[in-house]
Amino acid sequence: MDNTIIFVLIAIIILIVVIIKTFSKKQPVDVKTKNQKKAEIVDAYKMELREVLGVLQNDKQAKLNKKKELLKKFSNELSKNIFFDNDEIRGIILELSKES
After folding, report:
1. pLDDT digits (tens, 9 = 90+) for 40-92
2. How many CA atoms lie within 13 A of 15 on its CB side?
3. H runs (alpha helix) in the chain
4. pTM over 0.90
5. Which entry of 5, 23, 28, 52 is 20 to 30 Å from 16 by CA?
6. Geometric angle at alpha carbon 55, from 98 and 60, rounded to 5°
7. CA separation for the pair 92, 44 (Å, rounded)
């Protein structure tokens, strides 16, 4: 009987120590601002546009068609994103359309 009580107490103490260690190891979370997140999204679109259009460098008509297709896709994705309003979307699409 005495051994059982000792083992239960040791188990409870170990459990408490594990719980305390788990919750005390909270690392500060790197929270991005709204503007940082917006910039990351726009930069990702620019990179994708450059990568896809870079392959079509010699074929201007195919490049133009692919660019239109990508800009429509980007516009659609941005319209579903809570970070962007319609004026910002227009500005971003205009900026992306100037990419070559």
Report:
1. 999 999 999 999 888 888 888 888 899 999 999 999 999 998 888 999 999 99
2. 6
3. 2-24, 34-55, 60-79, 86-97
4. no
5. 28
6. 55
7. 12
